[in-house]
Amino acid sequence: MTLSKLAIATAALTLCAGAANAQSINSNQQNNANIRAKLNAIVEHVGGDVTATAAGIGNSFTVDGEGVTGVTNRQIFWGDASSLLNANVENVVGDVSLTSAAIANSATIKTSHWGGDISNTQFVNIDPTAVLNSETYDIGGEVSATAAALSNSATINSEFSRVGSNQQNFAAVNAIASATAARVAGDVTLTAAAIGNSLTVTGF
């Protein structure tokens, strides 16, 4: 197996909160730089599974805990997030998963109890672009190949008093996948997804 540089450049914040004391979380992230991730992979004769990922992420914010009085997230990305995965995979006994992901702003807020007042603000100005070129042959399991480009993504799983979200995308969003799969024993799933703004709220 020959792998070139895999660069995942990200401004990331991960917080774990308990319920012992009343807590609030306030995060402000701004990234003005270009983020690039590139992976060239040649994989042959593998007895298990194969996973190859190129991920370029501008701002990432994660809260995972029991309860808080409130969460405020503000993310601004004026850079350019891009990912490129070139993969040639042959003669694999198990499953093959290939992913090229370019994400400008990502926020995940999860509490097992109270989340209080939750505020999310995300801005993007320059194009996130994900490119996947893949060839997979003689695979004993399943094959999944995905190119995903997202400007603003927020997922909230919590009980809360209020949720306010403001997502603004001023950029083009590009996902390009060129994939070949042959002689595969299991299912084959090929995906190119370009998403401007995504908000998911559950748990209430």
Description:
The strands form 3 sheets. Strands 1-4-7-10-13 form a 5-stranded mixed β-sheet, with no helix packed on it. The N and C termini lie far apart (46 Å). With 204 residues, it is mostly beta strands. It is 0% helix and 75% strand. The chain has no helices and 14 strands. Mean pLDDT is 91; it is low at 1-11.
Which band does the percent of strand residues land in? over 45%
Termini separation: 46 Å
Largest sheet: 5 strands, mixed
Count every beta strand, where a strand is a DSSP E run of 2 or more residues.
Answer: 14
Mean pLDDT: 91
Which strand order spans the largest sheet, edge to edge or round the barrel?
A: 1-4-7-10-13
Q: Would you identify the regions where 5 or more consecutive residues have pLDDT less than 50?
A: 1-11
In DSSP terms (H or I, runs of 4 or more residues), the helix count works out at 0
Order of helices and strands: EEEEEEEEEEEEEE
In short:
The protein has a five-stranded mixed β-sheet with strand order 1-4-7-10-13, with no helix packed on it. Strands 2-5-8-11-14 form a five-stranded parallel β-sheet, with no helix packed on it. With 204 residues, it is mostly beta strands. It has strands at 2-3, 11-15, 24-31, 35-46, 50-65, 70-77, 81-92, 96-114, 117-124, 129-139, 143-159, 162-169, 174-184, 188-202.
Blueprint (SSEs and pairs):
Layout (H helix, E strand, L loop, with lengths): L1 E2 L7 E5 L8 E8 L3 E12 L3 E16 L4 E8 L3 E12 L3 E19 L2 E8 L4 E11 L3 E17 L2 E8 L4 E11 L3 E15 L2
Parallel strand pairs: 2-5, 3-6, 4-7, 5-8, 6-9, 7-10, 8-11, 9-12, 10-13, 11-14
Antiparallel strand pairs: 1-4
